[in-house]
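Course exercise 7: structure representation. Students receive a sequence record and must write out the corresponding structure in C-alpha cell form. The form below is the worked example handed out in class, using Type 1 fimbrial protein (192 residues). Read each field label carefully; the graders check that inputs and outputs are placed in the correct fields and that the protein name is recorded exactly as given.

STUDENT ID: A-19
EXERCISE PROTEIN: Type 1 fimbrial protein
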Amino acid sequence: MKRKLKYAVILAGLMGSSVSMAATGDAVQGASGTINVSGRISFTTCSATIDSASQSFALNRADISGAAAGASLASPFTTLTLNSCSGYPLTAKVTANKPGTDSMTGLLDGDSAGVLGYNVGFSAAAGVTGGVGDNHEVPVDGSAAATPLSIIPDANSYALKMTTYVKRVGSAAVPGDLGALTGSYTYTINYL
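STUDENT ANSWER:
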C-alpha cells in the first residue's frame, strides 16, 4: 500500500508539472503586439536672415482715387537670405494680423473705408514656382495656395525677395481722413 501511495504521489506530481509548463517557443499570453515608430529629420544647417523687418510706402490721394480695383500702387520688399539651403525644397506661409474678406488680401489699420489692402509674393532669380500669378503670391490667412508655393534655393546664399503689393481694394471714395496706415503679417519658411 505504501508503495502504491508513493507511485500515486509521483504520478500526480508529474501530471501537475506538465499542466503548468509551456512548450519551448510558445508565446507568452499578452506579450506580442505592434509598435508604431515615427520621426522627423530636420535640416538644422539651413537658416535665414532678413535685411529689414520694416517696409514703407508713400501714396497720394489722387493715385488711390484714380486706380482701378485690384491695381498695385506700391511694392515695398524685404530680402531674406537663405543660408546653406541649396537644393532643399521649401515653402512659405503668411498670416496677416488683419485679414481681408478673401484669403489673399490683408488690410491696413487706419483705413476705415477699406480702400487699400495688400498681397504678399515671393521671387528670386530662379527656384520659385507656384503661388498665385507671376508674383508667386500666397494667401495671407495662413492657408496654402491652390498651387502651393515651392522654393528650391540653387545656392548656399540664396536671396529670396518678399514683396508686399499695396493695392486698391474696391471702388469706395478715398476718405478725407486717410493718413497714417499700419499693418503687419507673420511669415514662416518651412521645409516641404
